[in-house]
Amino acid sequence: MHAEQNGRSADRLSVVYTVHVIEGGEQGFLKAYDQIRNSVASVPGHIIDRLGEPVDDSRQWVITSEWETPDHFFAWQQSEDHRALLAPLRAWVDQTQSLRYRVIQETVGVKA
């Protein structure tokens, strides 16, 4: 069954990837992320990537992405290209966590 919610396909997959950047590693991390984001933009099924910088001194960065379907994401994640692309990023982080989910409800703010 294919459902639409506020114009968004319920089949889409959202991914949240949190990384703890090592002390002093921000510039290396940003350079590695730039290489990843430019490459992933051409992967079939990729919709958008966002990078969130911490507003405190936690060094906990957040990368979010959205994919047309879970199959698109998992095909990319299991590829050799994915592993090779992420290798330089791993030099700048000491902890990671990945969450994957389907958006089932979305509330959009009212514009004044």
From TrEMBL:
Coiled coil: none annotated. GO terms for molecular function: monooxygenase activity. The keyword Oxidoreductase applies. InterPro entries: ABM_dom, Dimeric_a/b-barrel. It comes from the Bacteria. Pfam families: ABM. Residues 13-104 form the ABM domain. Keywords: Monooxygenase, Oxidoreductase. Gene3D superfamilies: 3.30.70.100. PROSITE patterns: ABM. This is Antibiotic biosynthesis monooxygenase. It comes from Streptomyces atratus.
